[in-house]
């Protein structure tokens, strides 16, 4: 059973081929055009997806040594994401399925981030908890089976990836700033500056207040010393990262306690953060959790995770028809 999957929800054009539950190719074209604008420009993302999609799909088929005739289904990201960007992948997948007479499988991008854990071994056992952290989302998800998941906590305002990126912008770092904060933090003292953690009820998160505290802190310091940022970049990044990671892990700990679940995973772009990975491993050892962290390749946006989600939908005969449209916002 061969599935071709296409991902185009944000600024990565990706295609992957999965055969009998195993990934054989995963091609990702990153759009560098957004760097100069300090964030993803939706119109430019759509245009870049249109330019990349054909060569990316061709390469995914070639890498997997599969031809169009060998395919059994076409999967695509239906949402959530940028509408214009999603439209490119959706239209491409629909046309290809129509032309080849193949069934179509729609995939929820956030569910796919969670199911990236089934690409490689060891795989989490059900039920497990997944902290899904990306540029647009921050969620704690309880997964009962591959297609049965429930969001038990989420952000009420900004996503943690957004907090990383917007803070990086204050530090004059190019977009996406999350990985750069991570880099600088490696040489800094995480306790150099401290910030108050937000008080949020239940398992929910908030990142808008902390983002503002970072901003006021930096403005005050720069008024006193115009070179404050350049002179202390490593300590600033380490302290900011430490704060953001603490907010995430505090709620994850609460979720594990409340549900009694000890199988704990992380997913999404921010799960590539080395501070989060290290702190989660340490916390896991202390709490007696079994911790699952995906390979870097499967943390940020990729079509392999879309293919994995499609694999489970294929097994359930969960197909969609040609009337399907992308959705910018989408629940599970
Ligand atoms: O999942 P993803 O690739 O795209 C979305 O669906 O949003 O996540 C992108 C986010 C960006 O905010 C980026 O800055 C962040 O993930 N990110 C990181 C790291 N790598 C990617 N944030 C902190 N540390 C990293 N190493
Ligand atoms: Zn994503």
What can you tell me about this protein's structure?
With 332 residues, the chain is of the alpha/beta class. The strands form 2 sheets. The chain has a 5-stranded mixed β-sheet, sandwiched between helices. Strands 8-7-6-9-10 form a 5-stranded mixed β-sheet, sandwiched between helices. The chain folds into 2 domains: 2-114 and 299-315, ATPase, nucleotide binding domain (Nucleotidyltransferase, domain 5, 2-Layer Sandwich), CATH 3.30.420.40; 124-293, Nucleotidyltransferase, domain 5, CATH 3.30.420.40. The two termini are 25 Å apart. The protein has helices spanning 42-63, 83-100, 109-115, 160-170, 178-185, 208-224, 228-259, 274-287, 303-315; strands at 2-7, 12-19, 22-30, 73-79, 104-108, 128-133, 138-145, 148-154, 263-267, 290-292. Helix 6 packs antiparallel against helix 7. It has 9 helices and 10 strands. Bound molecules: 5'-O-[(R)-(carboxyoxy)(hydroxy)phosphoryl]adenosine (KG4) and zinc ion.
First-to-last CA distance: 25 Å
* Share of helix, binned: 40-55%
The CATH superfamily of the largest domain turns out to be ATPase, nucleotide binding domain
Hetero groups in this structure are:
5'-O-[(R)-(carboxyoxy)(hydroxy)phosphoryl]adenosine, zinc ion
Large-scale geometry = globular
The CATH topology of the largest domain turns out to be Nucleotidyltransferase, domain 5
Q: How many distinct folded domains?
A: 2
Q: Which structural category fits the helices and strands? A: alpha/beta
Q: Roughly what fraction of the amino acids lie in strands?
A: 15-25%
Rounded radius of gyration (Å)? 20 Å
Mean pLDDT: 97
SSE order: EEEHEHEHEEEHHHHEHEH
* CATH architecture descriptor of the largest domain: 2-Layer Sandwich
The strands making up the biggest β-sheet line up spatially as 3-2-1-4-5
**Count of runs of 4 or more consecutive helical residues:** 9
Biggest sheet, in brief?
5 strands, mixed
């Amino acid at each position: 059973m061969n599935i071709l999957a296409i991902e185009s929800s944000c600024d990565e054009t990706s295609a992957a081929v999965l055969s009998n539950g195993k990934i054989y190719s995963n091609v990702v074209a990153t759009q560098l055009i957004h760097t100069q604008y300090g964030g993803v420009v939706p119109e430019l993302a759509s245009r870049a997806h249109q330019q990349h999609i054909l060569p990316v799909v061709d390469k995914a088929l070639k890498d997997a040594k599969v031809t169009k005739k060998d395919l059994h289904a076409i999967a695509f990201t239906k949402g959530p994401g940028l509408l214009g960007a999603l439209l490119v992948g959706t239209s491409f997948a629909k046309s290809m399925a129509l032309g080849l007479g193949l069934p179509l499988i729609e995939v929820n991008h956030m569910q796919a981030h969670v199911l990236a854990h089934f690409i490689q071994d060891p795989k989490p056992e059900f039920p497990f908890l997944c902290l899904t952290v990306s540029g647009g989302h921050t969620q704690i998800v309880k997964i009962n089976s591959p297609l049965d998941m429930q969001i038990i906590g989420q952000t009420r305002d900004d996503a943690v990836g957004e907090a990383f990126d917007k803070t990086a912008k204050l530090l004059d770092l190019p977009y996406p700033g999350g990985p750069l904060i991570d880099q600088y933090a490696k040489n800094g003292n995480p306790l150099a500056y401290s910030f108050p953690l937000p008080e949020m009820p239940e398992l929910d998160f908030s990142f808008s207040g902390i983002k503002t505290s970072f901003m006021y802190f930096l403005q005050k310091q720069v008024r006193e010393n115009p070179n404050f940022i350049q002179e202390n970049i490593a300590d600033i990044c380490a302290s900011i990262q430490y704060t953001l990671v603490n907010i995430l892990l505090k709620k994850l700990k609460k979720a594990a306690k409340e549900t009694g679940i000890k199988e704990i995973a992380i997913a999404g772009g921010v799960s590539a953060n080395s501070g989060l990975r290290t702190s989660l491993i340490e916390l896991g050892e202390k709490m007696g959790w079994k911790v699952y962290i995906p390979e870097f390749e499967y943390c940020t946006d990729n079509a392999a995770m879309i293919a994995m989600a499609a694999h489970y939908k294929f097994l359930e005969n969960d197909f969609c028809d040609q009337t399907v449209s992308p959705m910018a916002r989408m629940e599970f």
